[in-house]
Design goal:
The protein has 5 helices and no strands. The protein is mainly α and 145 residues long. The model is unreliable at 99-112 (pLDDT under 50).
């Protein structure tokens, strides 16, 4: 549960960002997340922040920022990790990502390498699969006698 909900705050989209981070932390057992005995509200937050320090969570650690105003948005994470692929928000409207979990000033995000090429390959593969499906469903196979 997101810190702002634990404190009686409003439900916002940033709650979903926190929840997704915690789900990934649990799945990967980041810094022993699943093994922790969490019996207080503060323990929930502490466990998530400890998981954010795990090297395997480095790409999404900004999702575990306690202050929802400083927590990364989905758009910011798409820009950081996928060079903006999949954005519905215009790229120019996505604010710089803060590393607020460490108290640093905003920084420009680095572009992910090879993402445009990967997207091109996936699109090409999708076109081939559609053609293959079309051929299989529209051309009747000849029967051998």
């Amino acid at each position: 549960m997101a810190p702002e909900i634990l404190q009686g705050g409003p439900q916002t989209l940033k709650v979903d960002i926190w929840s997704l981070f915690v789900t990934v932390a649990y799945t990967l057992n980041a810094n022993g997340y699943r093994d922790r005995q969490i019996d207080t509200r503060g323990g929930l937050i502490t466990a998530a922040l400890a998981a954010a320090d795990d090297p395997q969570m480095a790409r999404i650690k900004e999702m575990a920022t306690v202050d929802p105003e400083k927590r990364a948005s989905a758009a910011q994470m798409l820009v950081k990790n996928y060079d903006g692929a999949g954005l519905s928000t215009p790229r120019g409207e996505v604010p710089d990502l803060h590393d607020s979990s460490r108290g640093q000033e905003p920084r420009r995000v680095k572009k992910a390498r090879g993402v445009p090429k990967l997207i091109g390959l996936l699109n090409a593969q999708n076109r081939v699969q559609k053609r293959h499906h079309f051929v299989q469903t529209t051309i009747k196979p000849h029967r051998l006698r």
